[in-house]
Amino acid sequence: MQRSRAGLRLAFNTRCSPSSFQGASPEIWPTPSSLSAITREELSISYLGTGVRLISDANQQLDGYTVLKTLIVTDTAQSAPALQTWKLTLAYDGTEFHGWQVQPGERTVQCELQAALGRVTGESPLPQGSGRTDAGVHALGQVASFTLAAPIPPENLRRALNRTLPPSIRIVETRTVHSAFHARHSAVAKTYEYRIFRGAICPPTLARYVYACSWPMDIRALQTSARLFEGEHDFLSFAATDPSLATRTLDPDAEPDPRPLPRPDFQIEPPVAPTIRTIFSSAWEELQTEAGPLLVYRVRGSGFLHHMVRNLVGTMIDVGRVKLNAAQIPEIFSARSRDAAGPTAPARGLFLLSVEYDEQVDGPQIHV
User: End-to-end CA distance of the chain, in Å?
Assistant: First the structure.
């Protein structure tokens, strides 16, 4: 709470006791009859109490008032509403969006969500996503965080946002969390899923959400290659090679090395490569659905590089089609070159399935 002190020239009605000014012992003297008309300052000073108004040094007829010398008034400003940190879980069909992140002239999920928050609450915080999904990539469990001053119940916010958002974006859950929570920085694991349709003819209702691939496939070779990605590895060979890499890190979520620059005579261990990631699980599953057979790849890891999952899938498809041997995957890691790995699988088959957080920051904020 902020407090301010101001020296004011005041007049108060003599029927009001000067003791109403807490902590003030003003010197009082009679108003001279010579005071004549002035332009009164139109200021609201309701905190000064009944019968009090601000006057200037010029003359004014103030019958029945007593003038105070400069009075020090302590103004207890009203506290601004406390900002609450919000966690939103959302799902979206990424087909019509140019990815998650706001981009000039493009329709993105982040932009749509920010605009919806503005319409519902009158505030327009920029929601921070757990990851920047590419154009055409879908989500079943994307997470966004932001702060709001508006005191709105979580369920009301969820309903209001879903009423104003396009049907291709749905808010699944809304809740307030600890103030330290950040959708991207607080994440400890993410799970992605890639879906391949194996039938001869892909139904039009499914075509936006799968990669139709009916070629003969060695499923055992696929499973073998998937397990080789588990553990900690340098995934540089599976990261996107963008023209913009000269001006940004390979990992858009990477934090700068916090260590100070060393003196010329001081040795420190080299920084961890920004392309090293830990994969906790990596596996394929065959599913039979009403629409036809599906191959589903599910991967859970500490984090993922740009296009990493799609490049893993493209490489494994080459293994399944016997264009590449699973035994070559360690060599691809060692090469640290995008040219050594397989092609990038289409975006439409990829889903961000879920994001995991530490309970210490994912819980509600406790106010003391």
Answer: 15
Say what the pLDDT of residue 359 is.
Answer: 80
Query: 61 vs 30, 37, 38, 40, CA distance in Å?
Result: 12, 6, 8, 11
The pLDDT value recorded for residue 329 is 96
Query: Contact, 170 vs 92, CB < 8 A?
Result: yes
Q: Which residues are identified as catalytic?
A: 134
Helix and strand numbers, DSSP H then E, in the chain: 6, 14
Rounded Cα gap, residues 353 and 244, in angstroms: 28
Cβ neighbors of 360 (< 8 A, separation 6 or more) are: 178
- Look at residue 28 in the predicted model and tell me its pLDDT: 37
Q: What is the pTM of this model?
A: 0.71
Distance separating alpha carbons of residues 112 and 167, to the nearest angstrom: 11
Angle between helical axes of 154-164 and 109-121 (0-180°, round to 10): 120
Core vs surface per residue 254-274: b (16+ CB within 10 A) or e: eeeeeeeeeeeeeeeeeeeeb
Strand-pair partners of 285: 296
Type of residue found at 215: W
Query: What CA–CA distance (Å, rounded) separates 92 from 348?
Result: 12
303: its two tokens: 């984090």
Integer Cα distance of 277 and 45 in angstroms: 60
Amino acid at 152: I
Q: What is the set of domains in the chain, with CATH numbers?
A: 3-76 (no CATH), 84-185 (3.30.70.580), 188-240+273-357 (3.30.70.660)
Pair of tokens at residue 82: 């406390």
Q: Contact, 352 vs 137, CB < 8 A?
A: yes
